[in-house]
């Protein structure tokens, strides 16, 4: 039988059905499909796919186990370096990382590495495999991690396995960071996946303290003075950016962070069973073209909006969102208004949104990012009739920790300055990684930073 140059398709909910529910869109491979897809792997002696993985999963090894039907062995292989495989299998941009380097991609489609990772992680969960708690030494050193997002969780898992007593401090009432508040249920189920994988860290002995706002209830300096030998800051990028256009303070204008947090973390999609109402309206405009914009648009649709627009100032080729997310959004009926840029939010006398004034754009020469710079077309203004506007143009660092920590250097954007390889900051014993350092990026890149930090903290404490 000749080698297929196409991936096995991922089973999905029908677009018309899923647009009205919050159940997971992608349904996952069954065992037979996983084995058949694994057989597409060439088992390269020099696995280029690994160089695209920020956490260095041994990809040929775990896929080799799947070929033989040894799913538990495959899961164990992944978990040696990745403590959150079910999450990564769902939200990593594999097409830009491991799969991008797959040899098969030169002539066809890469091996579906992400789908296979998801399969074995889900298999492991379904079997209820438990981790053995770590027997910590009486004099084990203690590490504090601020933030329970991907970077913090990855660092916690590695440090615990090294024998350190780890305490994670989370400002919100549930652990997970962006995994809990940012990514919608239909992409990443919270109880079934996020909570379950975080609970595996608790099994290792990691303590997670919620409702613990660093910079308010305690400072980094106090943690170092009173109990901990090192601190890792992994607070992410949760401060929303706005456009600075007229009308952004009207009722019916949301930052995407607020909109998604109310829906995902505070369960607005289950109102009135959860006491978090959310105003959506009939016509919604989401400003931006990244994954967060797609998440907000698809969430608004599921909350009952009749018409949802994506308003983005560049063309489709420049959309920063994953191709899969764009594809799913289009299937569900999201209306893409490309090469358009908002210039004002229009409101009524009662202070509620009634429209979004936009101007048409055309692409000029490439800017510093390499993408063609959008230029306004004079006299092309028009108005979209909407009653809700969601701003999804990025987010930056919350300054709370930086402003309350002595000797901690930051850049002009407020991100913490840290060594790219060790995550060491200007303050001895304090490390930082993930979006708080790089600005908003991907889950797996933040996890990669967490793993680097864990290794560096281990070396620091051994030499302390």
Q: Could you please describe the fold and organization of this structure?
A:
The protein is α/β, with parallel strands linked by helices. 33% of the residues lie in helices and 16% in strands. It is built from 17 helices and 16 strands. The chain has helices at residues 15-18, 31-38, 48-51, 59-67, 71-79, 85-91, 113-126, 150-161, 178-181, 190-204, 220-226, 256-264, 291-302, 323-331, 400-404, 435-438, 443-462, and strands at residues 142-146, 165-169, 207-209, 230-233, 239-240, 253-255, 283-287, 307-312, 335-338, 340-347, 353-366, 372-376, 382-384, 388-391, 395-396, 430-432. The strands form four sheets. Strands 3-2-1-4-16 form a five-stranded parallel sheet, with helices on both faces. Helix 8 (150-161) links the parallel strand 1 (142-146) and strand 2. The longest helix has 20 residues, at 443-462. It starts with 14 loop residues before the first helix and ends with a helix. The mean pLDDT is 94.
Backbone structural class = alpha/beta
* Sheet with most strands: strand arrangement: 3-2-1-4-16
> Helical amount among residues, as a percent range?
25-40%
Over the alpha carbons, how many angstroms does the gyration radius reach? 23 Å
Beta-strand residue fraction = 15-25%
User: Shape, please?
Assistant: globular
Oligomeric composition of the shown chains: single chain
The main pleated sheet reads as:
5 strands, parallel
The poorly predicted ranges are: none
Distance, first to last CA: 59 Å
Q: Helical region count? A: 17
Average residue-wise pLDDT: 94
Query: What is the count of β-strands?
Result: 16
């Amino acid at each position: 039988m000749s080698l297929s140059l196409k991936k096995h398709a991922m089973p999905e909910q029908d677009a018309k059905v899923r647009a009205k529910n919050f159940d997971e869109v992608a349904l996952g491979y069954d065992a037979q499909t996983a084995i058949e897809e694994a057989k597409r792997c060439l088992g390269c002696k020099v696995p280029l796919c690994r160089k695209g993985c920020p956490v260095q999963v041994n990809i040929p090894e775990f896929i080799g186990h799947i070929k033989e039907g040894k799913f538990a062995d495959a899961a164990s292989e992944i978990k040696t370096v990745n403590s959150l495989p079910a999450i990564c299998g769902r939200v990593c941009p594999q097409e830009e990382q491991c799969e991008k380097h797959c040899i098969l991609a030169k002539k066809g489609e890469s091996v579906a590495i992400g789908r296979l990772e998801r399969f074995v992680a889900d298999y492991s969960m379904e079997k209820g495999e438990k981790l053995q708690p770590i027997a910590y030494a009486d004099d084990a050193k203690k590490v504090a991690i601020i933030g329970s997002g991907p970077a913090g969780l990855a660092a916690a898992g590695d440090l615990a396995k090294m024998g350190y007593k780890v305490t994670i401090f989370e400002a919100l009432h549930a652990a997970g960071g962006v995994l809990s508040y940012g990514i919608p249920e239909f992409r990443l189920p919270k109880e079934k996946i996020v909570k379950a994988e975080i609970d595996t860290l608790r099994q290792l002995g990691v303590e997670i303290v919620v409702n613990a706002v660093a910079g308010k209830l305690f400072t980094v300096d106090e943690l170092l003075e009173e109990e901990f030998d090192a601190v890792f800051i992994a607070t992410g990028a949760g401060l929303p950016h706005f456009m600075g256009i007229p009308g952004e303070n009207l009722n019916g204008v949301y930052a995407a962070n607020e909109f998604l947090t109310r829906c995902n973390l505070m369960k607005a999609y289950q109102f009135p069973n959860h006491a978090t109402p959310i105003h959506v309206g009939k016509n919604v405009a989401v400003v931006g073209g990244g994954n967060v914009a797609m998440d907000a648009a698809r969430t608004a649709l599921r909350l009952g909006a009749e018409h949802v627009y994506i308003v983005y100032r560049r063309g489709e080729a420049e959309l920063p969102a994953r191709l899969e997310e764009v594809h799913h959004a289009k299937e569900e009926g999201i209306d893409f208004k490309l090469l358009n840029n908002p210039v004002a939010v229009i409101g009524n006398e009662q202070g509620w949104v009634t429209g979004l004034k936009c101007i048409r754009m055309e692409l000029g020469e490439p800017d510093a990012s390499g993408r063609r710079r959008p230029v306004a077309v004079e006299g092309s203004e028009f108005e979209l009739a909407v009653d809700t506007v969601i701003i999804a143009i990025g987010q930056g660092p919350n300054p709370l920790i930086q402003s309350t920590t002595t000797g901690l250097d930051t850049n002009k954007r407020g991100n913490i300055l840290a060594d790219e390889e060790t995550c060491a900051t200007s303050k001895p014993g304090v490390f930082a990684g993930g979006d708080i350092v790089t600005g908003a990026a991907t889950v797996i890149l933040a996890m990669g930073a967490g793993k680097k930090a864990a290794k560096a903290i281990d070396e620091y404490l051994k030499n302390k």
